[in-house]
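queue> holo job accepted (glutamine)
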Amino acid sequence: TALDSPPLGLILADIVRSHRPRSEAGSIPAGIPHLASPPFDRFGIAVATTSGDVFSAGDADLPFSIQSISKVFTLAMALGADDPGTLWSRVLREPSGTSFNSLVQLEVEHGIPRNPFINSGALVVTDHLTERFPDAAGHVLQFLRDQAGPHGGRQGPFIDEAAAKSELANSSRNLALAHFLKDFGNLHRPAEAVVENYVRQCSIMMSCVEVAKAGLFLARGGRGTNGTVLSRSEAKRIGSIMLTCGMYDAAGEFAYRVGLPGKSGVGGGILVVVPGECSICVWSPRLDSKGNSLAGTAALADLSDRTGWSVF
Ligand code: GLN
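queue> job finished
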C-alpha cells in the first residue's frame, strides 16, 4: 500500500495546514440560504480504510450539508431495489458537460437525463426509489446511520429540516426539471413529492468521518458495515459514473487533477473512492464556479500526489 512513511495521520494534518482557506475566495451556493452560514475557513478531511481504520484532521467531526453527495447513496439504494434494468431505461450514463441544474439537454434527450448525478437524473433516481420507499429520504438516512453512526457519543447523520424547508421554498428550478420530466413520462410520482424527497435527502447533515465511513462500501466492492450493499460489479459501476459525472462539468478537470472517482455537493463536501484501499471525504464550504469545493479539490489533488492513490 501507499501507507509508508510519513504516516497518513501526519499527511492529513499537513494537508489541513496547507489547504485550510486563509481568505474568502470562492463562492457560496445561491438559492439555499441555510448553506451560507459556515465560516469560510472550515476545512476537514477523513480517510476510512478498507482495513477498518479511520484517520482524520481539521474539522472532520463537524456536520455539514451533504447536498449532492447524497446522489451516490440514493443511486446505490435505487440499484439495490431495482428490477434489473428498470432504472437504466430512465437515465443515461454520459457526462453532461453542463451545470448540475441544467435543463437544456433534457429536451434534446426526450426527457432522459444524461446521468444520475445531475439534478434531473437524481430526480428520476429519487422518483424510482420513492415508488418502493415513499419516504425515500428517510430510507437513505437510515442507510447512512447504519453505515456511519451514531458513534462515540455523536448523534450521527440527521436531516436539517429547516434547511430543507428553506431550499424547498426556493426550488423553482428543480420543480421545473421535475415537471419537464413528467411531461416526457419519466416521472411517476407527483413532481412536488419527488422534489420534497430530493431536497430532504440533500439536507442530510454528516461529518467528514461519517461520509467517509458511509462511502466505504464503494471501496470494498459493495460490502458495507453490516453486510452486502451492492454486488461488486454494481459498486464498480457507481465508481465509473462518479469518475465521469461526479463533478458535473468539471469531471474531466477533476479526473485530471485527482485521478479518482468523486462526488461533490454544494455544501462543500467531496466523497472520493480509492478502490480496494479507502474512502475519503473532504469538506470546505467555499466553491469554484462549477459548484465544487475549491480547497477540497486542491487538497485531494495534493493527497493523491502524495500517497499515489489513483485509479490510473
Ligand atoms: N440541493 C442542491 C440543488 O438541488 C444540490 C446541488 C448540488 O449539491 N450540486 O440545487
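queue> Strands lie at 44-49, 54-58, 64-65, 158-159, 204-206, 223-224, 227-228, 262-264, 269-274, 278-283.
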